[in-house]
Amino acid sequence: MKPGLLCFFPALAFLLALSAAEIVIKPENSVISYYNSRDRIVAFDLKKHLDLIFSSNIPVTSDGKPPEGKFVFHVGKLPPDAKAEFKPEEARWLATPEGIYFYGDRNSGSRHAVYNFLEDELGVRWPEPGEIMFIRPSPIVLGKVSGAWTPPFRVRGIRGRDPEYRLWCMRMCFGGHDQPQVGHAFTDYWEKFGKTNPEFFALNSSGKRAPALKSGNDTDNPAAFHGKNSQAVKMCVSSEALHRKIVEKWNFKEKRYINICENDSPPIEFCSCENCRKLDPVRATLGNYYPDFLTDRYVYFANAVAKLAVAKRPDARVCYYAYNETERPPVRERISANHTIGIVPTVFTVEGTEKLLSGWKKAGATEFFWRPNQHTYFNSGCMPFGFEKHFFNILCLTVKHGTIGFDYSSFRSHPTLSLSDYVLAKGMKDPSRNYEYWLDHYCSAFGESAPYVKEYHEYWRRNWEKRIAPHLDEILKKGRYYNFVRGMMWGELAKSFEESDFDATDKILETALSGKLSDSARGHIAKMLLANKHARLVYRSIALKSDENSLALLKFREKNNIPILFGREEKWGDPCEIKTILALREYDPPFIRTNLFWYFKLDPSDTGVKEKWFEASVKTFSKNWDGMLPTDSFWENPPPRWKQVSPELRGKLKNYDGTGWYATGLKVPAEWKNRDVYLYFGAVDESCWIYVNGKEVGKHIFKNSYDWTVPFGIRINDGITNWDSSVYQNIIVRVEDKAGMGGIWKRVWLVSKAGK
Ligand SMILES: [Zn+2]
Questions:
Q1: pLDDT at residue 201 is higher than 90
Q2: How much distance in Å is there from the Cα of 301 to the middle of ligand 1?
């Protein structure tokens, strides 16, 4: 190189000179300085990391004048001679013997620079929100003197709410620039234009151009459509007046994007006017979920708005979601060049994703981002499904198709699942690396035990590939509305796991724990082991259903401060049977469910006691009684699906108040002879008397207004004379209902506990 040339490249000469020198961080002589309030959070997060790594207490200044002679971490300051020209969100850092500069694009460059430095240069890892892991370096000699990163996507994020999660998002360099505007676009329309411009609005099922009716809202009062009610508004997308209004309202000087996303909350009633219907290539039923196919009418809508918008601003873009009724690509309409589409997939296979994306591109889509919101349905919080690589591969596929970014709903909520969000976050940061690279990156947080943490995740990945992925569609179908976890809970879990899987993975984690570990790594792996043990018990209580298994799960949750009803279990019908076990826990397993259907006899004149109906026996029930009734619903309205209940009996009971008798035969285990045996009633409305083999053994009398909901147990030993297991005991219950619903409306159990 000619000497003169150096004069043209002073910054380069500066860098070359530096790289030869060793830069050593001396924490005791360091200070952090930030120059703009927007860098405050990251400056203090930098301090938090440095203090942890160096066991120091580095001061932070913000007056722009860090003390002289110190090694300064400059957050948001250009190094001498650096040019202040950057690509959007571009981040740079540069180390000199006097300090380190974190700088870049004004909005987020310095922030991204700090986190890149911590991760790449100091080896920090954030496996999940709230965790900071690192291998303590000593002495702190920097391997590199500079670093740079420019985001490969305009939109990067996984949605999460709590403050620790938001901090994790910053550390993952989430964010964006030139981001499309999406979300419910028309929530204020009815209030503003409901009276003046009914033609903007969907023709609803009651023949009015107004929001869908639901109880408690009055469409004649547009001002009432705030908050949740505003979600009921849907538009007439063929209305040219609406197209003009949207473009008129658009702040085109400041924003190039126009959001035309519809509301999505039920009741969903798309416009049923003839002009809108004409736009559908297939006649839709309207007012239903997903089976409807309305993409063409919405692409028509987007084209119409886009045409008006480009006249005002040539770089305008119209934004909308490919979502539910509009998820599949249009069949007739062509997508004009200036659409930005947020694709919300309900396909979760690589092939399905490929088909969906190429379909949209074939229809003319040029710009899209990936918005999987139903990934929350893959988050059980309790089972290690091993799908991380699968979903990483789908992310890679969208990259191949040229996505501009990602707006994910989170998978995670549990230590066994933190890898899933981690690899997606890293794929957004640098999609040129493959899954294995980011898996190793994640596992490196665990130091010596990295190979075991990796083996743990690889074990479950192989299980996904071998036993879950091949019947993914079946699972989604079983779970309804693509709800993967619900499908698993409702029966598919048994096919996907085995007891030996948990033996193997527990062992891997136990080995991992025996290594030399930092406190944070040990804490994380201990949580993983606890989660794995919990997963085994969930598996057992669902796939190997038994009262013992459910009870063991309940006790494990109580002991380890895990919520008694975990995640969405309650909403999904208590698949682990925890609620039942909770109610029966003062007894000992097994808990025997009595028949769902018992014989029933009406007693409108209440002569049963006098006529000694309680002396009836199993042999005569079927002949002399009125029929069968389920014991899990009120006698007024047994579910229509139960064909065991005759139409005649249904008719008699429709509005019945008075006395009725239930009867069944029960076999009691002989080994319970020396125990206290109970009939446990989930609830009876209102009062009842219980007879065993003709003898009254107890009663439950309605006294307090809530007594019809209260469970109770009745000891029945006194009525049992023959303890042979093969003998049917005659169980008869007289129920008296004075008003409202009546009957045995929650299941009856046969249980026992040690005798006194
Ligand atoms: Zn219409």
A1: yes
A2: 11
Residue 410 CB-half CA count within 13 A:
20
Distance from residue 679's CA to the centre of ligand 1 (Å) = 60
Q: What is the pLDDT of residues 102-130, one digit of tens each?
A: 999 998 999 999 999 999 999 999 999 99
The Å distance, Cα 279 to ligand 1 centre, comes to 9
- In this prediction, residue 17 has a pLDDT band, given cuts at 50, 70 and 90, of very low
The percentage of the chain sitting over the pLDDT mark of 70, rounded to a whole number, equals 94
Residue 216 zone, left/alpha/beta (φ > 0; ψ -120 to 50; rest): left
Whether residue 304 has pLDDT greater than 70:
yes
CA 284 from centroid of its chain's CA atoms: 30
* Residue 719 contacts residue 697 (beta carbons within 8 Å): yes
CATH topology of domain 589-754: Jelly Rolls (2.60.120)
Tell me the CB-side half-sphere exposure of residue 367, using CA atoms within 13 A.
18
Distance between start and end Cα atoms, the chain:
99
99 Cβ contact partners less than 8 Å away, ≥ 6 residues apart: 70, 71, 72, 73, 74
Q: How far is the CA of 262 from the centre of ligand 1 (A)?
A: 13
Q: Which of 2-16, 379-393, 427-441 has the lowest mean pLDDT?
A: 2-16
Tell how far the Cα of 249 is from the centroid of ligand 1, in angstroms: 20
Collapse the DSSP code of 164 into the 3-class scheme (helix H, G, I; strand E, B; otherwise coil) and give the result: helix
Assess whether pLDDT exceeds 70 at residue 18: no
Q: How far is the CA of 268 from the centre of ligand 1 (A)?
A: 14
Q: How far is the CA of 278 from the centre of ligand 1 (A)?
A: 9
For residue 235, report the distance from its CA to the centre of ligand 1, in Å. Answer: 7
Q: Residue 83 pLDDT more than 70?
A: yes
In this structure, which CATH number among 3.30.379.10, 3.40.50.720, 3.40.640.10, 3.20.20.80 belongs to the domain 3-150? 3.30.379.10
Output the pLDDT for position 16: 45
What pLDDT was estimated at residue 502? Answer: 98
Question: Domain extents for the chain?
Answer: 3-150, 451-587, 589-754
Mean pLDDT of 338-355: 95
Say whether pLDDT at 554 is over 80.
yes
pLDDT of residue 216: 67
**Average of per-residue pLDDT across 530-538:** 95
Q: Which residues contact 410 (CB under 8 A, 6 or more apart)?
A: 158, 159, 160, 165, 375, 376, 379, 421
Nearest one of 224, 243, 355 to 303, comparing CA atoms: 243
Alpha carbons within 13 A on the beta-carbon side of 332: 12
Q: How far is the CA of 575 from the centre of ligand 1 (A)?
A: 44
Distance 321 CA to ligand 1 centre (A): 19
- CA dihedral of residues 564, 568, 573, 576 (deg, nearest 10): -50
Q: What is the CA radius of gyration of the chain?
A: 34
